Give the backbone structure.
Amino acid sequence: MRWTAARTRRAFEQWGGWVALAVGAVLCVLGWYGISGERFAERQLPYLASSTIPGAALIVAGAVLAGRAPETRAEQPDEPPGDGADGAPGRPVAVSTDPPVAVPGGTLFHRPDCPLAEGKPGLVAAAADADLRPCPVCEPES
């Protein structure tokens, strides 16, 4: 596995989220401690404005950053297109060299092992003179 810019950014966001959570918790505790020592509301407001509200905002922001789901392989910009289900880069979806097939009434012709045609009832051999286009998924040879 390569350490890429996307991974570095993701790690920074996740650790930054945990740091924001910790700082927010400390600010909330300090705000609570300051407020608890004051009897009158007008003396409690500075603690509320300077510690508790920013602390709560940091807790929310930190939770969002730290709790984000990891990016999937398809979302990572440094991965090559055409990844197969097993994650092998550049592996085609269908590799059969048998003659192409078509679904009756369809507009595309496919390789026999194409996921869009596999298991469909009534597959027929694709005729060369038919007005069928090649499937963009399996890219059969015309």
